Amino acid sequence: MTFGTRKEPTPDAAPVGTPAAPRGDAPAPGPVASPAPAPARGPAAADTQEALIRSGKFDAIRTAVFTSMNMSAALMKTRDEVRAGIEQVAAHTVERERLKITAGEQVLIVDAILNDMFGVGPIEPLLADDTVSDILVNGPDQVYVERAGRLELTSLKFRDNAHVTSVAQRIAAAVGRRVDESSPMVDARLADGSRVNVVLPPIAMRGASISIRKFAKRDITLARMAHQGNISHGMLQVLKIACACRLNIVISGGTGSGKTTLLNALSQHIEEHERIVTIEDAAELQLLQPHVVSLETRPENTEGLGGISQRDLVRNALRMRPDRIILGEIRGAEAFDVLQAMNTGHDGSMTTIHANSPRDAISRLESMVMMANANLQLLSIRRQIASAVHLFVQVERMRDGVRRVTRITEIVGMEGEVVITQDLFAFRQEGDTTREVVKGVFEASSLRPAFAPRAAYYGVEDALSEVFRQ
Prior knowledge:
The chain is an alpha/beta fold. It has two domains: about 45-215, Beta-Lactamase, CATH 3.30.450; about 220-470, 3-Layer(aba) Sandwich (Rossmann fold). It contains 16 helices and 15 strands. It has helices spanning about 45-55, 55-70, 70-75, 80-95, 105-120, 125, 160-175, 220-230, 235-245, 260-265, 310-315, 335-340, 360-370, 380-390, 450-455, 460-470, and strands spanning about 130-140, 140-145, 150-155, 185-190, 195-200, 210-215, 250-255, 275-280, 290-295, 325, 350-355, 390-395, 405-415, 420-430, 440-445. Strands 9-8-10-11-7-12-13-14-15 form a nine-stranded mixed β-sheet, with helices on both faces. The longest helix is centred in the first third of the chain and has 19 residues, at about 80-95. The protein is elongated and about 85 Å long.
């Protein structure tokens, strides 16, 4: 009997390992590999695999594999070499136990065992599912995903809490990090760029938690966003003009509202000859320009040494002769240095911030600057913000799951001790909105943008005027 295999080339390999005594139910943590090239799996495939995992067929084959294979030797080999060894052991098990298994089921069982050894266990198929944007593991029996802006509970399950912890530790080990009871929280990144947060007991009271924000593989442009209804055509034109005029832009919004996606889309309208320095905690930006230097923070080691913060990187970036600085997200004292950069010749810089409105974003910037220099007067901080930031772009994931730009607001100056703003665009929600569908319209202001003289300097004043005449 020939055990089911994928229709993909695999190198000829010797047996994976020599027989060894039973090693228990789970393999030692190994490196996390990116998903093997394969057709994208949808929710139906994941459900089919989960049903197999819960069956006696899977248990019989898995036990035979982990009993007969030398796991230490196996983890030193390639995924394809290990697959060949698993298929060999599994074929013998199917014949010996007289298991009734189809070719398709055979492939799914081998995949599940490989995922247990090299990947992220039962949630590995979700990494290959392009319809999934977030994967949230609350425990062995609760795996949620986000599809099209909505959370849904899947049928996928881990064996137990120890299985979740084992996968979490494997993720951390792949990026040289440790996660255990003494260090129960970690941020990491998978090989495909997906961002992962892990929390273990005793901090996570109900068992280990894993949160994965998947790396978007599809290019998102402003034109695509306008076509999808995330922004209006007028917003698209103004944002393109803002990039051409080298306006300093802050994108504000809640968690998962699409701030980084919009930042990526905006960056596509930066001239190719410009030198851009990007700074991030976890690399998510996908700039296409040829002259880009990407910097990433580094956490402290177990001795509390060697950490490099965003503030360190912003200060260093100023010595790298950047035309623009793009900061993935302002979170703390680096706000002071970012404002200084915007005020000292690095026009066209961009960043994001967690805030519920442009006015809230200003307040958060004030607080963050105070973290860097508590001696600064509030009025001085507000003047710096009014001088440095030109536009706030507010994004929101609305209750129907659609992400929209709900406001484009510009700073027009100071009046007394207050930063004065005006809305250029706003999304007005209509009364017949339901939970399933948010209805509304994008409305443009009748006011002349305060940056119109700057648009004239860059030769795009007519294009700007045309937007607000429509």
